[in-house]
């Protein structure tokens, strides 16, 4: 069996599902997941990192599979009490979830980097794979809509993705530095595969791509870059990807995503429903990409790793 390292780029729930499959089929220490931090924001005085937390909870088996964010078996006493005294309740922070935001904020205020804090949390939660923020510097996704520019969580949660999207920007990206552990993972001579998880290409993967040095590191790596389509038969599995693509004047299809990744990826994995789709200059792989249960996640992880000739 060929052994080597794997890097996955991930946003929220779609990415975390494949990351869980990869985590289960790879040996401890083989996988590094680079997480989008463009969705991060400060709320109620706390540093919230939604995509990092979705990865932490999913890989630790603490996730709520129905909501797709936060912890399972959550209680909401804090939110109820906050609402009672007139506080802001549009962004739901569960009682258990609150602990991670309070602890992260405390450690950041004490001088630790987001990478250090995240690594400490994943170790405490018993996660074998490395989870690395794309940058320790702030990058904030902003959405230009027919209601003007909105900070990402205000567009996504507060306005429930209802305003029409005109453009996106990743404030701070131009001067952000790629996190040292992300660069190290991408420069590892033992790197066997770089996987772009089926996350929203525009909201979750583009902020990672916008960090200077990431593109160069991907091109410099000899490992193949393999992306999995987040669009199946013109529909997003979850979230606003298809709606947003239509608003940006793009046909919501796997082919459009392949085009978006042109020049970046070597292989594009599409669902069986899109077996006939064109994928530009990339090599096409077809298989079941819908991840309803752990077996599906492991199956897709095996399919993706199979591109490299691995037998895991
Ligand atoms: N998404 C929602 O739709 N509503 C919420 O109230 C909400 C709260 C929340 C709290 C913590 C957290 O880590 C994530 C949370 N999310 C919520 C999800 C999150 O905002 C988005 O799904 C991601 O940013 C997109 O990847």
Describe it.
The chain is of the alpha/beta class and 312 residues long. Helices cover 37% and strands 20% of the residues. The protein has helices spanning 13-25, 50-60, 77-84, 95-109, 114-124, 152-158, 180-187, 201-209, 214-220, 241-247, 254-260, 294-306; strands at 5-10, 31-35, 41-43, 46-48, 130-133, 140-145, 148-151, 165-171, 191-196, 225-228, 231-232, 235-236, 267-271, 283-287. The structure holds ligand FO1. Ligand FO1 is lined by residues 11-12, 39, 48, 50-51, 53, 69-70, 91-93, 97, 153, 156-157.
List keywords for this structure.
single chain, 312 residues, alpha/beta, Rossmann fold, three-stranded antiparallel β-sheet, 14 strands, 37% helix, 20% strand, binds ligand FO1
Provide a compact summary of the structure.
This protein is of the alpha/beta class. Helix content is 37%, strand content 20%. α1 links the parallel β1 (5-10) and β2.
Main pleated-sheet profile: 7 strands, parallel
Taken as a percent bin, the fraction of beta residues is: 15-25%
Q: What sequence of helices (H) and strands (E) makes up the elements? A: EHEEEHHHHEEEHEHEHHEEEHHEEH
Q: What's the average pLDDT?
A: 95
CATH class group: Alpha Beta
Number of domains: 1
Number of helices: 12
Number of strands: 14
């Amino acid at each position: 069996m060929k052994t080597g390292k794997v890097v996955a780029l991930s946003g929220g729930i779609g990415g975390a599902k494949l990351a869980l499959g990869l985590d289960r089929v790879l040996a401890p220490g083989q996988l590094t997941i680079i997480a989008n931090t463009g969705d991060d924001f400060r709320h109620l005085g706390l540093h919230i990192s939604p995509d990092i937390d979705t990865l932490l909870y999913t890989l630790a088996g603490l996730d709520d599979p129905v909501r797709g964010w936060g912890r399972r078996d959550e209680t909401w006493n804090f939110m109820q009490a906050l609402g009672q005294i007139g506080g802001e309740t549009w962004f739901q922070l569960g009682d258990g979830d609150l602990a991670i935001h309070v602890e992260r904020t405390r450690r950041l205020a004490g001088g630790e980097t987001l990478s250090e804090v995240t690594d400490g949390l994943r170790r405490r939660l018993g996660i074998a794979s490395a989870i690395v923020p794309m940058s320790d510097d702030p990058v904030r996704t902003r959405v230009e809509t027919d209601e003007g520019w909105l900070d990402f969580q205000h567009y996504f949660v507060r306005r429930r993705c209802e305003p029409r999207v005109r453009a996106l920007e990743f404030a701070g990206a131009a001067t952000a530095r790629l996190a040292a552990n992300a660069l190290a993972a991408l420069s590892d001579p033992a790197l066997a595969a770089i996987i772009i998880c089926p996350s929203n290409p525009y909201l979750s993967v583009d902020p990672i791509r916008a960090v200077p040095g990431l593109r160069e590191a991907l091109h410099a790596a000899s490992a193949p870059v393999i992306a999995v389509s987040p669009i199946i038969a013109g529909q997003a599995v979850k979230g606003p990807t298809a709606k947003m693509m239509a608003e940006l004047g793009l046909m919501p299809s796997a082919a459009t995503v392949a085009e978006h990744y042109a020049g970046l990826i070597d292989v594009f994995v599409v669902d069986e429903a899109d077996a006939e789709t064109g994928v530009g200059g990339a090599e096409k792989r077809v298989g079941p990409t819908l991840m309803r249960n752990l077996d599906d996640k492991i199956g897709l992880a095996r399919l993706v790793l199979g591109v490299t000739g691995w037998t895991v």
